[in-house]
Specification:
The chain has about 425 residues and is of the alpha/beta class. Helix 6 packs antiparallel against helix 7.
């Protein structure tokens, strides 16, 4: 990286840049997620000579990012239940103004919408290299799972019906192909996504970098042998779980299908009455739909909510198995973290889950929305503790060998170095 900075200085345009103050701009849909996933790497870029700028919604991460040396600027939220063109336009104007004021050697964007806006903004602002990380390619598939949980760009197509879907998907593919032509690097988190992009011929293969597990997991923090993490019995006592709960199923991360979770919980209770559900409440609190779905289980003391500020290694220690009924593609941080804690996951089969879990080896994958299969898988594991131990051991081994965060960061930094070097050449 130091050699690269020397080359950048040698190539600098004095009227626009000052040596030793090269700018790197990161646009994200969540400042909290950016801090969690890339905080140490951004700090390292600052130490190695970049002036790091972060443009993201102020959802809890901007203050900490600023404290570690980043220059931060809030933008409107790009994630909502319905399309919000006003927010998109506002974010685009802020980003264009930023790039005009701070010509950047490196621009990184995460997510489809953020990357589309960044590609447009970089046409007017000076950017040497633009790298995007996109983990959700569901719209490009013929049979996207979970229409009801579709992200905002999908909703119109699903609302109009399957016959109208090409009206949305085909223009989106055109926009995707244009965006890809503007990129110098494209990070995906699974080989299934790589194969899909190659099949559709949306981007030059040389630009694609596969980083298994996305941003990876902090193996030292989520280490089952860490003396600071309580035993399972102590963790359950500290969380004040009912003594009648002999088995605990955990839910963490994005809660996409609360009614499905409640239905599966009721079915499981008929087969294993001693099973309880521990749910890590999202940082923004439960939605009205989530509250309605969980209320009967809360009254029956079959489900407990825990604070979003909870020490997550203790949460993972308290549960026997994690259940991840996610429809969205992309890598689930909670699946990576619980795997590192030697606890298996039962998840809906998506590209993201499949990239982490080897079915029946380090966890179990079931068809999205298949309540019977999900209930059967949960009952099977809870009835066989030795199988939980075996899957958990293999999940930890796979996390340690493949999904370490330091290794992921090194791969990202090598990509940055490679694309910048290519542009200078």
């Amino acid at each position: 990286m130091n050699d690269l900075l020397e080359r950048l200085d040698a190539d600098a345009q004095p009227k626009k840049r000052v040596k030793g103050t090269w700018d790197a701009t990161f646009i994200d849909t969540s400042s909290a997620r950016l801090l969690r996933d890339w905080g140490p790497m951004l700090a390292r870029l600052s130490i190695e000579g970049f002036r790091v700028h972060v443009l993201a919604p102020d959802d809890g991460g901007l203050i900490s990012l600023e404290e570690q040396g980043c220059q931060v600027k809030a933008i409107p939220s790009l994630e909502s239940n319905l399309p919000n063109p006003a927010a998109w336009l506002g974010a685009l104007i802020i980003l264009q103004g930023h790039l005009f004021e701070h010509p950047s050697a490196l621009l990184h964007s995460r997510g489809l919408l953020a990357s589309l806006l960044a590609a447009v903004a970089s046409q007017r602002g000076e950017v040497l290299a633009h790298v995007a990380t996109i983990e959700d390619h569901r719209w490009l598939t013929e049979q996207p799972c979970g229409a009801r949980q579709a992200p905002s760009l999908d909703r119109l197509g699903f609302a109009l019906g399957e016959r109208a879907r090409p009206w949305v998907s085909e223009p989106l593919q055109v926009a995707w192909r244009w965006m890809a032509s503007q990129l110098d690097g494209y990070i995906v988190s699974s080989r299934k996504d790589l194969a899909l992009l190659q099949q559709l011929d949306l981007i030059e293969p040389r630009k694609i970098e596969v980083i298994p597990g996305g941003q990876g997991v902090e193996l030292t923090r989520f280490d089952p042998n860490n003396a600071l993490i309580p035993s399972r019995a102590d963790a359950r006592t500290q969380l004040e779980l009912p003594s009648s709960w002999r088995h605990v199923v955990g839910i963490a991360g994005m809660i996409e299908a609360p009614a499905e979770i409640a239905s599966i919980a009721r079915s499981l209770s008929q087969r294993i009455p001693s099973a309880g559900w521990l749910v890590a409440e999202p940082a923004g609190g439960l939605t009205s739909a989530q509250k309605r779905a969980f209320e009967p289980l809360l009254r029956q003391d079959r489900l407990r909510l825990v604070s979003p500020g909870l020490h997550m290694p203790r949460f993972y220690r308290a549960i026997d198995v994690l259940f991840a009924p996610r429809y969205r593609e992309g890598i689930s941080t909670s699946i990576l973290e619980v795997a590192s804690m030697k606890t298996p996951t039962i998840a809906y089969l998506t590209h993201g889950a499949e990239a982490i879990i080897e079915d029946r080896d380090s966890g179990i994958l079931v068809s999205p929305g298949d309540h019977v299969a999900a209930t059967d898988a949960l009952a099977e594991l809870l009835d066989h503790p030795t199988q939980i131990m075996t899957l958990g051991e293999r999940a930890r081994t796979r996390a340690r060998q493949t999904f370490g965060r330091e290794a992921s960061h090194e791969q990202v930094l090598r990509l940055f170095d490679r694309v910048l070097s290519r542009k200078l050449d």
